[in-house]
From TrEMBL:
Membrane-crossing segments per the record: 27-46, 67-87
Molecular function GO terms recorded: copper ion binding; cytochrome-c oxidase activity; oxidoreductase activity
Domain Cytochrome oxidase subunit II copper A binding: 92-225
Protein's name according to its UniProt entry: Cytochrome c oxidase subunit 2
Subcellular location: Mitochondrion inner membrane
GO biological process: ATP synthesis coupled electron transport
Catalytic reactions of this protein: 4 Fe(II)-[cytochrome c] + O2 + 8 H(+)(in) = 4 Fe(III)-[cytochrome c] + 2 H2O + 4 H(+)(out)
Function: Component of the cytochrome c oxidase, the last enzyme in the mitochondrial electron transport chain which drives oxidative phosphorylation. The respiratory chain contains 3 multisubunit complexes succinate dehydrogenase (complex II, CII), ubiquinol-cytochrome c oxidoreductase (cytochrome b-c1 complex, complex III, CIII) and cytochrome c oxidase (complex IV, CIV), that cooperate to transfer electrons derived from NADH and succinate to molecular oxygen, creating an electrochemical gradient over the inner membrane that drives transmembrane transport and the ATP synthase.
Subunit comment: Component of the cytochrome c oxidase (complex IV, CIV), a multisubunit enzyme composed of a catalytic core of 3 subunits and several supernumerary subunits. The complex exists as a monomer or a dimer and forms supercomplexes (SCs) in the inner mitochondrial membrane with ubiquinol-cytochrome c oxidoreductase (cytochrome b-c1 complex, complex III, CIII).
Recorded family membership: Belongs to the cytochrome c oxidase subunit 2 family.
Organism: Coptotermes acinaciformis acinaciformis
Gene name, Swiss-Prot/TrEMBL: cox2
């Protein structure tokens, strides 16, 4: 999760998020190079007092500043398109989880198991403990196995919502009457936090998402306990 005065992205908890962080740093380096070059040229032009009455055209420099931006765009577009295809690809999922957005809570259904569904509400401030986070912890956490491809199906029962986990690089709109699909794989154990990222009414700020990533053995035990 993010921390106080954190100026960078959250630590990636999935391979896709790690690739997104690398792409972010890659584009920032290109932007730094462009900013430095343009600033140097502008300062040089402002401070330069020399003139030439014989310079009427500059075909070489015009060719250069036409081709150079195109090459830079290729260096940005290629990894961007690769990431888009990776994020859209749904590999053979070992688990399917359906999230339904309501005003103002989430409902979850484990489609691969019978009678495994629950509602997830934010823990009220007066019921919180020292180990819980304000506005982020829920009474029923999503439990998912790590290192397993997971298919996520998102929809809504009333208005627009958005199911978002920043550390997984996942943000999927929940639209009434429509099923949106995404996939991810959690690469480490732990607790991951997210929130609804679509303004959905008065209590939009109070419908968090909490995922508990556990090894497969503990997940099977949890499923057996919940199915009793």
């Amino acid at each position: 999760m993010t921390t106080w005065l954190n100026m960078s992205l959250q630590d990636g908890a999935s391979p896709i998020m790690e690739q997104l962080v690398f792409f972010h740093d890659h584009v920032l380096m290109i932007m730094l190079m462009i900013t430095t070059t343009v600033s140097y040229m502008m300062i040089t032009l402002i401070r330069n007092k020399q003139t030439s009455r014989f310079m009427l055209e500059g075909q070489m420099i015009e060719t250069t500043w036409t081709i150079a931006p195109a090459i830079i765009l290729v260096f940005i577009a290629m990894p961007s398109l690769r990431l888009l295809y990776l994020m859209d690809e749904v590999h053979n999922p070992s688990l399917t989880l359906k999230a339904v957005g309501h005003q103002w809570y989430w409902s979850y259904e484990y489609s691969d198991f019978t009678k495994l569904e629950f509602d997830s509400y934010m823990i009220p401030q007066e019921e919180q403990q020292e180990s819980t986070f304000r506005l982020l912890d829920t009474d029923n956490r999503i439990v998912l196995p790590m290192n397993s491809p997971i298919r996520m199906i998102v929809t809504a029962a009333d208005v627009l919502h958005s199911w978002t986990i920043p550390s997984l690089g996942v943000k999927t709109d929940a639209t009434p009457g429509r099923l949106n699909q995404t996939s991810f794989s959690i690469s480490r154990p732990g607790i991951l936090y997210g929130q609804c990222s679509e303004i959905c009414g008065a209590n939009h700020s109070f419908m968090p998402i909490t995922i508990e990533s556990v090894p497969a053995k503990y997940f099977i035990d949890w499923v057996s306990k919940m199915s009793e």
